[in-house]
UniProtKB/TrEMBL annotation:
Transmembrane regions: 147-169, 181-204, 260-280, 360-385
Organism whose genome encodes this protein: Phalacrocorax carbo (Great cormorant)
Annotated family: Belongs to the glycosyltransferase 22 family. PIGZ subfamily.
GO biological process terms on file: GPI anchor biosynthetic process
Protein localization: Endoplasmic reticulum membrane
Name used for this protein in its record: Mannosyltransferase
Source domain of life: Eukaryota
A Gene Ontology cellular-component term: endoplasmic reticulum membrane
Broad class of where this protein is predominantly found: endoplasmic reticulum
Pathway as given in its UniProt record: Glycolipid biosynthesis; glycosylphosphatidylinositol-anchor biosynthesis
Amino acid sequence: DILNLQVYYPWEFLSSSPCRTAVFPLMTSGVTYWVIKSLQQLDICSSCINSYTLLVSPRLLFTMFSFILDYSVYRLAPSWEADPWKALVLLAGSYVTLVFYTRTFTNTLEGLLFALLMVLVSSRKSAGSLAEPTSSPLIGIITTAGFFNRPTFLAFALMPLLYWAGLIVDSQKSIKTAINHFLKLVLCACFTAIVFVTADTLYFTSLELGNLYNIKKSSLFDVIGQLNEKIIVTPFNFLSYNLNPHNLALHGSHPRITHFTVNGIMLFGILHILAIGAGFKMLKKYIHQLVRVKSYYHGPSGLLVHSEGNPMLLLFYFVPLAFLSLFSHQEPRFLIPLIVPLVLFSTSQNRAVKWKHVIVIFNVLGALLFGCLHQGGLIPCLFHLEHLVHSPESPHHPRHYTLLFAHTYMPPRSLLNIKKRDTHIEVIDMAGSEEETLCQTVEQRANNFTCNDCQVFVIIPGTVRATITKCSVSFKNETLIFPHLSMEDPPQMPFLFSGNWRSQLGLYILQLGRD
């Protein structure tokens, strides 16, 4: 929208029924794209807009934002009986922080907002007694912003909000003052919601009228007229879509215990296992207390905060995890906001110290797998193709490029840096197509003799290289991008110990011959 590039609009951002707010993408990636566009227009940087800057500039901004986690953990640690510096080391050494929080995920923003919310509800006086809550407006703003970013944010915000409400009730002698806090929260939440709804309605209405790039050419009265006809509230569209099990099944269905048994361990390793163990012990402890009719009249903050082991942190961790487990589609990245309460819980009472060698090895392997190997060749491949398709050519005989991707994650087309007016580059994403369908498409492109100067490139993982050789085509050139690991088409162990192991951990760019 800002750089006038050809992109693929995900279904969540289609103007017919948008499920995601456009505010956060515009405030993050949009700002960085506007900056590099301005630098190029001012001739400060003649070639600022390229595949590298398009990738790195938003990631650099998110990396800067990731220090919000460090600030939050440092502020929260004393409140939850954790050592600040040990907590910071555990946070900074986690591959979740190094890999996921430097990428442009909505889950990353969700985690940052969750951390800030925890800071706001956990403020205390230096003497250790609870401070009078004064953050009602900010809590309302952050909760609503998180809800519009990802409606699942309510699962993360539930326990902090209940904890904050408990502090309000405990610290206020006057009902009027307590009601005043809640009214401030509600009013600020409503105002924030109005801002998001207005911005989303303007954005998606402009897409229906034309392209946002040409919004200045559109009549303001047309936009206002459209606004009167259609108010867009993206979280409601998101919830109505995801509450339908059939829709979730289209994206993959998982057992309800996947988050507990697989994703939590995949992201946090031994820390997740320690939290489960501590959770069972504390649950058993409180069941015994209830059976003996003890602690019935203890205040909620006194029972949960000052008890041994900070069970409230476990609730901050397991309650969102339980709510997310109600949905059949469960990806590991959905849990990355939980790193803050888990780090705080793990460093309280030095739980993680005796496991430090296991933690270090786990995070090194995790960073290597998810930060380097997993689909690692796709971005360098797009860098290579961007240079290729923008190479100098004869103005009288422009080349036509067809880029066919198979058995890779969806290639981000924006990194090819193709202007919307350009029609000489075609991108085909065949995802995980079967051998017959793949060969049929490749053969069809190879036998297209109506275009004399067409260049066709097939991009596939090395583990599928043998499949493409069965097609009735020839390749005149090939390039291997290393490393690249496809978990959907994993390499077989015997090949990894052979002389051909690099090809199994690589991504091929095959140029189709015209024999």
